[in-house]
Amino acid sequence: MGKMHAAAYQQLKTVLDFKVTAVADADREKADEMAETLGVKAFYSPQELIDKADVNTVDICLPTWLHYENASRALSKGYNIFVEKPLCLHSKDAFALVKQADEKKVFAQVGLTLRFWTEFEYLKSVVDDNIYGKIKHLKLRRLSPAPGNLWMSDTNLSGGAALDLQIHDADFALYLFGQPERIKAFTNPTGEKYSSIVSELKYSDFTVITEGSWDYPPSFPFEMSYIAAFEKATIIYSMLNGLKVCPVEGESFSPELKKECLAQTDAGGNVSDLGGYYNELYYFIDCINKGIQPVKASLLAGAEAVELTEKQKTAAERM
To answer: Which helix (H) or strand (E) holds 225?
Structure first.
């Protein structure tokens, strides 16, 4: 994810007023390589960068269990922070960061990238503008090969697919509709705990189903998708097959959506398209430059996403 952000910053430096001044990685070779690419100073621990680098803003792309410690350290210095999702491993720490950031009066944002992903922004606009009438039900799906990273496979360090993967869709449900009235959830009965989770979020007159799983072999293609059924149309999106609107009356069609960034990168993650990452970091830097608090993906939103995911995991344990 650090490579994804670095690639986005390389694109953004031509359109926004900011400067990357330092990079940190515990792997000295990776730190030196990225520092050379960006033309900045290398540090070999996040603490060293926070304490010694010439910065006023820190972008945290560390393993999940390290988010709280380093975000809090940066906030104590009065630095602005961008924290990749999930904001923290536990919601209590996430809400503590919200309080600390408020007290420090800094600019802060979480990498809730679906809020900035063009096809998901389209769905948000359809819901907000009531374009196809009331929502009847929504299915959000995120499927991935098993992580090759040992810490991600350790639920105690990553929270499993529930917190690292499915949280995107849990957050998007919150973004669209707010807190659900009831939650049902199911997780895999064998193997890695929370490597797969399916949740039903019940609202007053519709449901949202979220599914997140990394219980698949290395050859399995990463896929994120949604099916949104409205009174007057159903919208289908698949990262593999694109976006289509199927009206109740008339022929199906693919909306033309403007994408701000079409660049690709081979950073080793699930998604090579820079679009959502570019958009969220553009928004963050632009808000700082304008002196406006980033509200589209605030620390509070990040904390609430972690909290909802915890509720989904608890609901699954009851089944």
So the answer is: strand 223-230
3 state DSSP class of 14: coil
Query: What's the CA gap between 280 and 118, in Å, rounded?
Result: 11
Tokens of 88: 């923290």
Q: What is the C-alpha separation between 179 and 312, in angstroms, rounded?
A: 12
Evaluate whether 160 touches 151 at the Cβ level (below 8 Å). Answer: no
* Alpha-carbon torsion, ordered 296, 183, 230, 248, to 10 deg: 140
Strand partners, 198: 186, 211
pTM of this prediction? Answer: 0.94
The C-alpha atoms of residue 179 and residue 140 are separated, in whole angstroms, by 16
β-strand 196-202 against 207-216: which pairing, if any? antiparallel
**How many CB atoms sit inside 10 A of residue 221's CB?**
11
Instruction: Report all structural domains of the chain as residue ranges with CATH numbers, in order of start.
Output: 2-113 (3.40.50.720), 114-257+300-318 (3.30.360.10)
Strand partners, 23: 42
Written as six digits, the tokens of 151 are 């810490």
Burial-class residue 218 by CB neighbours within 10 Å (0-12, 13-18, 19+).
exposed
- CA distances (Å), 58 to each of 5, 51, 78, 211, in order? 12, 11, 10, 32
Which is it for strands 57-60 and 233-238: parallel, antiparallel or unpaired?
unpaired
Amino acid at 198: V
Strand order through the sheet with 108-111: 57-60, 80-84, 108-111
Q: Using 50, 70 and 90 to split pLDDT, how confident is the model at 189?
A: confident
Please, which pLDDT band fits residue 271 given cuts at 50, 70 and 90? very low
**Apex 280 CA angle, 109 and 158, nearest 5:** 60
Q: Percent of the chain beyond pLDDT 90?
A: 89
Cβ 152 vs Cβ 164: under 8 Å: yes
